[in-house]
Amino acid sequence: AARVVARDLVVRFGETVAVDHLDLDLEPGSFTALLGPSGCGKSTTLGVLAGLQRPDSGSVSIDGVEVLGSPPERRPVGLVLQKPLLFPHLDVARNVGFGLRMAGALRSHERAEVADMLRRVRLDDLGTRRPHELSGGQEQRVSLARALLRRPRVLLLDEPFSQLDPELRADMRTLVRRLHDELGVTTLFVTHDRDEAVDVADRVLVLDRGRVVGGGTPEEVYTRP
Ligand code: ADP
Ligand code: ADP
Fold first, then answer.
1. What is the pLDDT of residues 71-81, one digit of tens each?
2. Quick one: which of 137, 126, 138, 134 has its CA closest to 167?
3. Per its UniProt entry, what is the enzyme's top EC class, as one word (predicted)?
4. What is the whole-number distance in angstroms between the Cα of residue 22 and the centre of ligand 1?
5. Is 68 within 8 Å of 59 (Cβ atoms)?
6. Which of 144, 118, 113 is nearest to 129 (CA)?
7. Looking at ligand 2, which residue's alpha carbon is closest to its atom 3?
């Protein structure tokens, strides 16, 4: 697990200041929710950490190494988005293994890694299915397996379960918690849902208009008016 430090991040889109001098400290192995209303800069912040969004200024380090110059694939980061974005023509195992080998058959040790990760997300028997044969929850478990396959030190999730029904969302939160505990990955979970943030995380950061305006333990955030 890695320590993630962001300092004085600024991201502007024209007149809009999406991220406004934001500081972030994620302890190694911590599980943090980034909570705030739609449009407050959660996705943009995650994009900066993942390397998908270049900030106008500021710095991001992972275990003391500045990462702002490195492309997403060079960062020790796994990313799960709201929409799973699976390859429709590839089966589940190939979708999960895509980052290891984009073309050609997987090597046997790679197949073993994929099988191990499918087991961890409880998709043991679904490796040969195509994405259109999966439920929404299964698709998000494929995304999780893919994000975790290369054992990232940081896991970033952007409203990963917001398209699932409430009961399934609770199940999926339990699964993410277990994967976090088993793999010891520093986790940042973006949500606009306070109940979800409080349920899933050990620490909640409240974002408003691109700034961290509060936070604390789930109990503190839950009982605050
Ligand atoms: P959240 O994830 O909290 O909903 P976002 O990070 O998506 O917030 O957006 C923060 C602000 O930046 C919003 O005002 C949004 O409209 C704006 N924004 C986000 N991405 C872009 C973009 N690519 N171009 C222009 N404005 C953007
Ligand atoms: P989310 O709800 O996940 O934050 P949105 O629906 O706000 O996503 O935005 C979808 C896409 O459009 C994202 O890639 C975001 O960066 C971009 N976007 C958001 N707001 C704007 C904007 N005002 N102008 C241009 N692109 C935007």
1. 998 999 999 99
2. 137
3. translocase
4. 15
5. yes
6. 118
7. 43
The structure tokens 């509060």 sit at 214
Q: Which residues contact 164 (CB under 8 A, 6 or more apart)?
A: 136, 137, 140, 172
Nearest CA-CA partner of 10 in 23, 27, 28: 23
Residue 75 CA to ligand 2 centre (angstroms): 23
CA pair distance 81, 196, nearest whole angstrom = 16
pLDDT digits (tens, 9 = 90+) for 89-140: 999 999 999 888 777 788 899 999 999 999 999 999 999 999 999 999 999 9
**Length of the chain, please?**
225
Q: Is 0.90 exceeded by the ipTM?
A: no
Nearest atom (ligand 1) to Cα of 40? 3
3-class DSSP assignment, residue 19:
strand
Q: Please tell me the pTM assigned to this model.
A: 0.88
Nearest ligand 2 atom to the CA of 42 is: 4
Separation of alpha carbons 142 and 96, rounded Å: 6
